[in-house]
Design a protein that fits this description.
The chain is mostly helical and about 170 residues long. About 80% of the residues lie in helices and about 0% in strands. It has helices at about 5-25, 35-50, 60-75, 80-90, 100-130, 135-140, 145-165. Helix 2 packs antiparallel against helix 3 (about 60-75).
C-alpha cells in the first residue's frame, strides 16, 4: 500500500468513527408498547402522504426531504416529531398524490362535459328566443315611448269595442 492509500484509509476510518460516535450519542427514546404502536401507525399514515413514489413529479424533491425527516424521527422513536409531521401533512395537503390527480382529472372531464352540454342547451334556448315573434318585435322597436303610446291607443280602441259589444 502506498502512502496516499494509507492516508485515504485513515481519513475514511476517522470519518466512519466520528459518524459512529455521533450516532451512538443520539438518543433513541424508549416508548411503551402503546406508544410504539401509535408511532408505527402515525409513521405509516404520514409515509403514505409524503412518499416520493406517490406524489406528482414536480413535488418529489420536497416529498423526499419530508420523508427522510419522518424516517429519521421514526428511527429515533420520536413520537412527537412523527405526530407533528403527520399533522402538518394532513392539514396542509402538501402533496397531490397520483391517484388524487387521476380522480380529479376524471371529475374535471365529467364536469367539462356537463358544462358543454349546458352550453349547448343554452345556445339552443337563445336561438329559440331569437326566432320567436316576441323577440323580433322587441328587436325592431327603436322608439320605446312611441311604441308604448301606440300600444296604449290600440288597447283603448279594443276596450271601447268590447264595451260596445263589437269585436
Amino acid at each position: 500500500m502506498g502512502t496516499a492509500e494509507e492516508e485515504e484509509t485513515v481519513r475514511d476510518y476517522e470519518e466512519f468513527n466520528a459518524n459512529y460516535e455521533s450516532t451512538k450519542k443520539e438518543s433513541i427514546a424508549e416508548l411503551s408498547e402503546d406508544e410504539l404502536k401509535e408511532l408505527k401507525d402515525k409513521y405509516r399514515k404520514a409515509s403514505k402522504l409524503c412518499h416520493p413514489d406517490v406524489v406528482e413529479e414536480d413535488q418529489k424533491d420536497a416529498a423526499h426531504k419530508i420523508f427522510m425527516e419522518l424516517k429519521e424521527a421514526y428511527e429515533k422513536n420520536d413520537l412527537q416529531r412523527v405526530s407533528e409531521i403527520l399533522e402538518g401533512l394532513q392539514k396542509g395537503n402538501a402533496f397531490t398524490s397520483k391517484a388524487d390527480t387521476a380522480n380529479e382529472k376524471v371529475s374535471l372531464i365529467a364536469e367539462l362535459e356537463r358544462l358543454r352540454q349546458k352550453l349547448q342547451d343554452l345556445n339552443e334556448t337563445v336561438l329559440a328566443i331569437k326566432e320567436s315573434d316576441a323577440f323580433k318585435t322587441i328587436s325592431s322597436i327603436n322608439e320605446w315611448d312611441a311604441y308604448f303610446s301606440n300600444t296604449k291607443e290600440k288597447l283603448k280602441e279594443q276596450l271601447t269595442q268590447l264595451e260596445h259589444g263589437r269585436e
